[in-house]
Amino acid sequence: MGDVTAAGQQPEPIHDVLIIGGGINGCGIAMDAAGRGLTVLLCEQDDLACATSSRSSKLIHGGLRYLEFFQFRLVGKALAEREILLHNAPHIIRPLRFRLPHQPHLRPAWMIRSGLFLYDHLARRKALPGSRSLRLGPDSPLKPHIVRGFEYSDAWVDDARLVVLTARAAASHGARILTRTACIGAERRGDLWQATLEDRRTGRRSTHLSRALVNAAGPWVAELQQSTIHCQVHHPLRLVKGSHVVVRRLYPGEHAYILQNEDDRIVFVIPFENDYSLIGTTDVDYQGDPAAAAISPQETRYLLRVVNAHFRQQLQETDVLWSYAGVRALADDAHGKAQAASRDYTLDVDQPPGQAPMISVLGGKITTYRRLAEEATDQLCGLLQRPSRPWTAGAALPGGDFADPATLAADLHKLYPWLPDTLLRRFCHSYGTLTHELLEGCRSLDDLGRHFGADLYAREVLYLIQREWVLEPEDLLWRRTKLGLRLRPAEVSVLRDYMDIRTRWHAADHS
């Protein structure tokens, strides 16, 4: 049985797996499956990481607060993954120390010490130092009455780049990645799936066959299953919105803060893009289109109120430079507080007798995406009766094939001494050793071409269009980079005009 095609077109091959959703879970499964020899087609209705996967707290962490809900298995699993990811992607993931100011009326010191002891020992820890107690002196940015605290380790991640680099790894193993391509219909045809995909830029439709289907649509997983695939979700789902704000840097230093609040929730304050602080997150039950999720005035006031209760510098709503909100689809019913809903994942397998299988991805957190992908690919290989061997635990992501960030920066400086320090530092943290690919043939700053503002040049714009599926300025400014914080509206307008021409040329070259 072959694919249905228009007259005169070559039939599409039958893929082993069609993955719907270009967030971290979909791209993670695509990478793992392609690396095991499965033929993979992934479609994403918008840009890679366009929703939840670029709207996280930017942390690779076990989830210290989950210990209070006795989710020891999830925390241990996430802490083990933290070690693996720090090794596999040292350019976009880096260690981060957290300070937890002690507020005796909220949690006693013995409880915090016990929790940190568990956090240090629930999984093997090699890359990061353990926790310790702190005395906060007069130079602390916190209010004078806060004199005691604790410190522990986790890691920071550029979440959207994690998705894109995982997609690049998938493509390097033969996966086909289609962005701005929606699945508008899928049905079983015996032991195959027949799916209709629509290019959202041109309206062109195509039909594809696959031996298995993966629904990794994140907060759209239930809607896709019911309206497009016409199957029921077998587990309760809960949509929870988490919101963040960005302000000017609140304090010097590269450490983060984890702040306790009267309602038992916590709020992070994290160094962000050198000059800013990222504050989040909230947990609010959500209804409606996940694409329209935005922070509410109440959430903004909540986050600022928690920060103002701890820091000497007081923030107002006018200090917020940027905000974002993401919706998580949690495998959980709607009982209890949203903050207590499990962040663990469920893989829901649907395979009527004699019919093609489907796996739906429910829940999960960015820290455990690789483990989730490994388990999903194990199941796919079993369902398709293919031999398989897990491989991603030791696989560096593109650009991550180096041991020490400082050594990488020194090497790049020797090779490209004409790069401004800010640009070299950003290239190190965004591209790692892929910087050589980006700068191939360049001998001076002039070779980077047109300057659009901040430290964005035409060479990088073209590279992202050609290698990282960038089609719109928002893809570049808010996901591949965070230069949207720095470029002025007039500069963005010039960039938009430039990209409109270059993306059309690129599309014509690959049509």
From TrEMBL:
InterPro entries (alphabetical): DAO_C, DAO_C_sf, FAD-dep_OxRdtase, FAD/NAD-bd_sf, G3P_DH_FAD-dep
Enzyme superclass (EC): oxidoreductase
The enzyme's E.C. designation: 1.1.5.3
Highest taxon, organism lineage: Bacteria
GO molecular function, one term: glycerol-3-phosphate dehydrogenase (quinone) activity
Record bears the keyword Lipid metabolism: no
Positions of the FAD dependent oxidoreductase domain: 16-333
Keywords, ordered alphabetically: FAD, Flavoprotein, Oxidoreductase
Pfam families linked to this entry: DAO (PF01266), DAO_C (PF16901)
Catalyzed reaction equations: a quinone + sn-glycerol 3-phosphate = dihydroxyacetone phosphate + a quinol
PROSITE patterns, per database record: FAD_G3PDH_1, FAD_G3PDH_2
Cofactor: FAD
Start and end residues of each Alpha-glycerophosphate oxidase C-terminal domain: 392-500
Similarity comment: family membership: Belongs to the FAD-dependent glycerol-3-phosphate dehydrogenase family.
Protein name: Glycerol-3-phosphate dehydrogenase
